Amino acid sequence: MSKIKDCGGHKGCECEKEAFHRKLCYALVALILLVLFIILIVWLALRPHKPRFYLQDLTVLCLNVTPPSSAYLFTTMQATVAARNGNARVGVYYDKVDVYAQYKDVPITVPTRLPVEYQGHDDQSVWSPFLQSLDHVVLPPYLAVSLAQDETAGYVLVDIRLDGWVRWKVGTWISGHYHLRVNCPALLTVNDGKGSYGVNTGGGDGYFRFQQAAARAVSCLCCPCKCLACGLFSCLCSILISLLVTVGLLALVFYLIFRPHMIAATVDSAALTQFNLTSNSALTYALNVDLTVRNPNKRVGLYYDNVESLAFFDSQRFGFALLDPFYQSTEATTKLSPSFKGQQLLEGDITAANFRSQETNGKFDIEVKLNAKLRVKVWAFKVPGPKAKISCPITVPKPAPNAPAFQPTDCKVWF
Known about the structure:
- About 20% of the residues lie in helices and about 45% in strands.
- It has helices spanning about 15-45, 140-155, 230-260, 350-360, and strands spanning about 50-65, 75-85, 90-105, 105, 110-115, 115-120, 125, 130, 155-170, 175, 180-190, 210, 220, 220-225, 265-275, 280-295, 300-315, 315-320, 325-330, 335, 340-345, 365-380, 380-395, 410, 410-415.
- It is elongated, with a radius of gyration of 41 Å.
- The protein starts with 15 loop residues before the first helix and ends with a strand.
- This is Late embryogenesis abundant protein LEA-2 subgroup domain-containing protein.
- It comes from Leersia perrieri.
- Keywords: Membrane, Transmembrane, Transmembrane helix.
- It is found in: Membrane.
């Protein structure tokens, strides 16, 4: 028969290690659910959105390249970009935002820095920066040929890019900097779609015209690399970390003030008046134990509730007894005398063999455990405490007229 390990409960127990791991998993799951719930509440309250950008106009004063004899590019343009913050409870700071034009993913103007600006709730901003190329900008040959072909065909597609940093403001909280990238595609007609033929090749009044669908501004693709929700999540994590640090500091202060110490327990005496195992593995027992439990704390009193005592042989419980609850004042000592008497079926051939071997040696290895729910008293305050677990592995002489005296044994205590 297989041996069944009993871990200390009188209603069908589970291993203490497995119970600890299960509680730890429950705590982690509860923490994750709490964080997700807070994020959901924040999202429902704020309904965060990315700012929307529009390219309202693009005026090209010059865009000239003459391959294959030359790949030098000369361009001057003015872009009118509008940004709207559609959030009802979130403000946006625009810091260090640069605007430039590019053709086929290659910049054709130098970046122009926009002024720092704050957008409040449902606010809108408009910028009209001038974009120019350097005098010595040289395009790759294939790109110069492609641009010349597009001008000849009558249509040129350029991109107006915004690249910079933003900060979010919710109430009085202001986030850190997050990268902002905006792409505004602009379709230009060349000479009203006729292409680059005539005396105005490369520029002139009305030579390049910005096309708007249905007389509306062109919507731009806005991509904050870290969105507002991410910023709020980071803020929430910072708050949780701050709370943990605060709790840790409070625990440190509590420790320095009260200097809590572990409970001390000792088995002073133990005697077996009956301890027999029948052929069908039925254990008849009568065990009396005297324990001393001491509270070494100078400023903390302890209430012991739901006190239960258990007796084990070869990891199998054979005895259980309830003890009266009690209170220990500071530096107090309490005597406990649990008594176990009855009959219990032990399982496993190995347990029976161990019993016979220890009976031959004249002494039995028995473990006595005490479990209690603590309440802590600090001054006039009473707060719930942990569950105390006291384990006392003792060696008890076999019942006999000339049995040797019991040796007092210290117990292990943990929470």
